[in-house]
């Protein structure tokens, strides 16, 4: 699921006329997944074969997450934000590559980044029909808007019995009901670091799924397994653990 809305130029990074065509290139983001360096795809799903930092044995049955607002910054503080989003669906092997239909200028950027989830001002209840159609919505009693991630599966609980877990990341909300409150932001910006772009570029980005369960908080699935969406403390723990989940492995150009 992907949608390009517009390009917001905070400062112009582009040349004009003929130079624009010569000096600009296309780019895409490719997302792959691992469990502490062991590659993971949907072929590994539905089988208890992973062990988290708490020594919980678990499976993955569904994994999908949303990224938005790719940003390129140069050393002068100038930046371009490419507004839009991509719903990466690992379960169905869909949208693992995101190629915005815009170009960027060749050169060195001090940082490239994207948002995990939506910023609050764009996390608007019912605003995106394609996301509505995929059951990506958050209940109105929790503030509405959309999920950031759905990670579901089973684990062997303390009785050595399979039990379901739903590790769903959303905007943290307190006081569920007509007037929920929001203790802190739980979307976050993923920084890919300094890059030099000389040709059409493919950014190869890895998600280490194991990191969601271990750093800085060791996640005990016997304690935190379901009903995590109305649990603002759990959402903040997810936010903390998500800071080291993504990394830029390479750029092909």
TrEMBL record:
Domain of life: Bacteria
Record keywords: Signal
Residues spanning the signal sequence: 1-17
PROSITE patterns (UniProt xref): PROKAR_LIPOPROTEIN (PS51257)
InterPro entries per UniProt: MbnP-like_dom (IPR046863)
Copper-binding protein MbnP-like domain ranges (all copies): 26-221
Pfam families: MbnP
Protein name: Copper-binding protein MbnP-like domain-containing protein
Organism: Seonamhaeicola maritimus
């Amino acid at each position: 699921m992907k949608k390009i809305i517009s390009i917001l130029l905070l400062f112009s990074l582009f040349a004009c006329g003929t130079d624009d065509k010569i000096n600009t290139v296309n780019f895409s983001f490719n997302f792959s997944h691992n469990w502490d360096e062991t590659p993971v795809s949907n072929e590994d799903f539905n089988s208890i074969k992973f062990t988290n930092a708490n020594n919980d044995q678990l499976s993955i049955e569904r994994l999908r997450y949303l990224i938005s607002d790719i940003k390129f910054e140069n050393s002068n503080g100038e930046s371009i934000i490419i507004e839009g989003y991509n719903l990466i669906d690992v379960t169905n092997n869909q949208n693992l590559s995101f190629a915005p239909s815009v170009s960027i200028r060749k050169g060195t950027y001090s940082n490239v980044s994207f948002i995990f989830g939506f910023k609050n001002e764009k996390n608007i209840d019912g605003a995106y029909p394609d996301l509505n159609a995929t059951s990506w919505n958050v209940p109105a009693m929790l503030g509405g808007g959309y999920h950031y991630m759905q990670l579901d599966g089973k684990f062997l609980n303390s009785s050595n019995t399979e039990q379901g877990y739903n590790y769903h990341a959303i905007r943290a909300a307190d006081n569920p009901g007509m007037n929920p409150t929001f203790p802190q932001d739980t979307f976050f910006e993923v920084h890919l670091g300094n890059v030099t772009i000389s040709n059409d570029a493919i950014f190869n980005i890895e998600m280490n799924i194991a990191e969601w369960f271990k750093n800085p908080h060791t996640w005990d699935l016997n304690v935190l397994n379901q009903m995590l969406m109305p649990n603002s403390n759990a959402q903040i723990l997810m936010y903390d653990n998500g800071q080291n989940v993504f990394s830029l492995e390479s750029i092909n150009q």
